[in-house]
Write a structure and sequence with these properties.
- By secondary structure, this protein is α/β, with parallel strands linked by helices.
- It has a single domain (about 10-205), classed as Alpha-Beta Complex (2-enoyl-CoA Hydratase, Chain A, domain 1), CATH 3.90.226.
- It is built from 10 helices and 10 strands.
- The strands form 2 sheets. It has a 6-stranded mixed sheet with strand order 1-2-3-5-7-10, with helices on both faces. Strands 4-6-8-9 form a 4-stranded mixed sheet.
- β2, α1 (about 35-50) and β3 (about 55-60) form a beta-alpha-beta unit.
């Protein structure tokens, strides 16, 4: 069994053949700063090749799954857009590695999942959420293109018409509504979340692992094809949008807690 590496923003834990990956910036609602952005591809690659696990569980410490991009980090990127060019490669690795993990990936969405946090949650195979949580991809609210995976995974889960509604408005959904439209698998009361997730993971761990992995690989073939067609274009568009006045206005409005005035 491979020893567990340590990271500054993400915690790893073994529970038998279950590998638990916990976003671990609870004071910041697990918002993704530069350190977490850099660590995520390495963590996911470890999970992919780890011989000590058969199921991966993604969750967040504290009251959120991940609140998306850290505001100070986003503001620095807006002021120095070339910083974002590095993150494009990390974003590509996050999405492609999630798709390449042949073990089942379960998301325990213990709280809000926003932006990149929503993308990571939705690229999991099965998502079980606290009914009080919200999920959404509000890139456009910051004058950004939803290029880091949202345009791939939202249509795959709920169809193009609904995906466009939520991606073009940036609206957040309650977990209950997300489950109703098939964006996530289930939304349960907070006190039932652990039991529901534990039962699902136990069922997967008791299954025929080779058959489960091959079935997952089979169902991911079309998703990988779409990803190959869309991801690089999406990231290129997002790189352009990082350099716009609308993005700078979106960041300023968020920091000043006011409505943005886009051009």
């Amino acid at each position: 069994m491979t020893d567990l590496p340590t990271f500054s923003t993400i915690a790893l834990e073994r529970r038998g053949r279950l590998l638990v990956v916990t976003f671990n910036r609870p004071d910041a609602m697990n918002a993704v700063d530069l350190a977490m952005h850099d660590e995520l591809p390495e963590v996911l690659e470890f999970a992919r090749v780890d011989t000590g696990s058969d199921v991966i569980l993604l969750t967040g410490a504290g009251r959120a799954f991940s609140a998306g991009g850290d505001l100070d980090h986003i503001a620095r990127n807006a002021a120095e857009p070339e910083r974002f060019d590095h993150e494009v490669e990390q974003a590509r690795a996050i999405v492609t590695t999630l798709l390449d993990i042949d073990k089942p990936v379960v998301c325990r969405m213990n709280g809000h999942a926003v932006g990149l946090g929503a993308t990571i949650a939705l690229f999991a195979d099965i998502v079980i959420a606290d009914a009080r949580a919200k999920i959404g991809d509000p890139h456009v609210a910051l004058g950004l293109v939803a290029g880091d995976g949202g345009a791939i995974i939202w249509p795959a889960r709920i169809g193009l018409a609904r995906a466009k509604e939520y991606l073009l408005t940036g609206e957040l959904l309650t977990a209950t509504r997300a489950a109703e439209i098939g964006l996530i698998n289930d939304a349960v009361p907070a006190e039932e979340l652990d039991a529901r997730v534990d039962a699902l993971c136990a069922k997967l761990l008791a299954g025929a692992q080779q058959a489960i992995r091959m079935t997952k690989q089979l169902t991911n073939i079309e998703l990988k094809r779409v990803t190959e067609a869309v991801l690089d274009v999406g990231l290129a568009y997002e790189k352009l949008s990082v350099r716009t006045a609308d993005h700078r206005e979106g960041v300023a409005a968020l920091k000043e807690k006011r409505a943005p005035k886009f051009r």
